[in-house]
Amino acid sequence: MSPILPILAALLAGVGLATQSPTNAALGRSIGSVTLAALISFAVGTAILVAAWLSFDRTPLATLKGAKPWMFVGGAYGAYFVAAAAFAAPRLGLASMLTIMIASQLVAALVIDHFGLIGLPRAPVTWVKIAGVALVLVGVVVVRKG
Question: How far is the CA of 69 from the CAs of 74, 80, 115, 118, in angstroms?
Answer without folding.
Answer: 11, 19, 21, 13
